[in-house]
Design brief:
By secondary structure, this protein is mainly α. The chain has one domain. 37% of the residues lie in helices and 0% in strands. The chain is elongated, with a radius of gyration of 16 Å.
C-alpha cells in the first residue's frame, strides 16, 4: 500500500528491489504456511523428508 492505494509489484517486471516497509507483513507471512501440509506430503512421497 502506497499513499493508501494497493500497489502490486512483480519481480520479473519491476525488479527484485522493493521497499520492505511498504509490505503488509501481517497479510504476507501467513501465506507461507498455506500449503505446508501438502508440501510435507510431497517431500515424503518423493523421498526428500
Amino acid at each position: 500500500v502506497v499513499d493508501g492505494k494497493l500497489v502490486r509489484k512483480h519481480a520479473c517486471i519491476d525488479g527484485p528491489e522493493i521497499d520492505a516497509h511498504a509490505i503488509d507483513w501481517d497479510k504476507f507471512l501467513p501465506r507461507f504456511n498455506l500449503f505446508r501440509k501438502q508440501e510435507q506430503e510431497a517431500r515424503v512421497r518423493h523421498g526428500l523428508a
